[in-house]
Amino acid sequence: MSNSLIFIVLLSDIIALGVGVFAGKYIFKKSFDQKEKEAQDRAAEIVRNAEQSAENIKRDRILEAKEKYLRLKTEFEEESNKKRVILQTNEQKLKQREQSLQQTVEQSKRKEAEVETLKTNLTHQLETATKKREEAEKMLSQQVSQLEKLANLTADQAREQLVDALKAEADTRAGSYVKSAMEEARLTATKEAKKIVIETIQRTAAEHAIENCVSVFNIENDDIKGKIIGREGRNIRALEAATGVEIIVDDTPEAIVISGFDPVRREIARLSLHRLVQDGRIHPARIEEVVAKTRKNIDDEIVEIGERTVIDMGIHGLHPELVKMIGRMRFRSSYGQNLLQHSREVAKLCATMAAELGLNTKLAKRAGLLHDIGKVWPEESDLPHAILGMELAKKFKENPEVCNAIGAHHDEIEMTSILSPIIQVCDAISGSRPGARREMMESYIQRLRDLENMAMSFDGVEKCYAIQAGRELRVIIDADNVSDEKAGMLSFDISQKIEKEMQYPGQIKITVIREMRSVAYAR
């Protein structure tokens, strides 16, 4: 029983195992079939997608090929059109050139015909002229023969007499020209000599320059003159020895004259006398003490004037010695014009002119202020003041343009800078302006009257006015009696007469006015 049970159990286990194996195979087969189907479906889908993509790519390539074909076709058509237009243009140009060549050929033919005609005419005219010349020569020969018979001279003799007459006339004209040139040179030389003499007088002590070299010291009463002279003249001798000037005590009431070529010395003497008179103690020791203090004060004042001047003018970097010489200009005059005031005026004019010309105004102002620096050099020198000033400027390291402008402002050296003519012009403007330099009022007015009277002496002049302080002469002429051509000659004649008969600074402009006026009255 137990064996049967065991057998049954075993059998049931075997059956169960077989059922399980069969069920497993079935499940595995079913799962495998399903996966195989899914793989087939996926493969079919991939194939379909690939076919679709290939179709799309094929369609895109076809479209691109069509577009490229159309673009190339369009470009080819455009290029063809351009070449066609060019060909048509060239054909038109060729046609035009052909027409032009035809016209040129026709014109050439016409010109050849004209040339032939002209050649024929010229040949005829030449033959005619040859005949006329032969006839003229024959007639001339006959006339020469008749003249030789009448004058008892041959043609060669007459030619020699004519040549001699022409030589005599040429010699006369040449002599007149030489005389005129010599006279002009003599006048110019006289002017230059006067200029040199005046410059020399201004820089040296001489009796004939006394009115330019004296100062007057005013006193309250003549009793002070005795104190200034001192016992046996010792005070005045001490004063002259200490200051280097001459003290002139004469009969002039309430005045003592201080004479000396150096204006600084004269100023020292004047101030020393003023202090001595105020103090009342006048003896040689006191005189030396006061003169020494005054000299120191004057030196300080000179430096202060120079510094104040360069500051006012806006000039910087000047050597101290040049600043001191600028201060000395305050005590120097040139033709009666204060040298410092003249230099300041020239500097301002130069700056203005340089600004108008677009040049360096500071450099122009510097050169204008220093242009007469050679006049105040305290040491003796034989050089002209312009050359001396140039050497001083070089010594104190001034700009080469400034140095050349100083040296060339009186034409002693060649001008190498544009500043040089500016300095020269401004110096002339400052020195020749009305009232700048010494000129008596009576002589000034008389000169203007003589100027007007000289112009009135010409025929046809109705009125004459000297204006611009004598720098311009305005002449009004009678329009009925003087023509335009004669008016032009009249201005020249007046200018020539003024040059020959008058002395004047600068130049005079002669303006001749001729106007026609027609007047009528409505009543």
From TrEMBL:
Residues 339-432 form the HD domain. GO terms for molecular function: hydrolase activity; RNA binding; RNA endonuclease activity. It is found in: Cell membrane. CDD domains: HDc, KH-I_RNaseY. Pfam families: HD, KH_1, RNase_Y_N. SMART domains: HDc (SM00471), KH (SM00322). PROSITE patterns: HD (PS51831), KH_TYPE_1 (PS50084). Keywords: Cell membrane, Coiled coil, Endonuclease, Hydrolase, Membrane, Nuclease, RNA-binding, Transmembrane, Transmembrane helix. It is a single-pass membrane protein. One of its GO terms (cellular component) is plasma membrane. Residues 40-153 form a coiled coil. GO terms for biological process: mRNA catabolic process. Its EC number is 3.1.-.-. InterPro entries: HD/PDEase_dom (IPR003607), HD_domain (IPR006674), HDIG_dom (IPR006675), KH_dom (IPR004087), KH_dom_type_1 (IPR004088), KH_dom_type_1_sf (IPR036612), Ribonuclease_Y (IPR017705), RNase_Y_N (IPR022711). The chain crosses the membrane at residues 6-28. Endoribonuclease that initiates mRNA decay. Belongs to the RNase Y family. NCBIfam families: HDIG (TIGR00277), RNase_Y (TIGR03319). HAMAP family: RNase_Y. This is Ribonuclease Y. It comes from Dyadobacter frigoris.
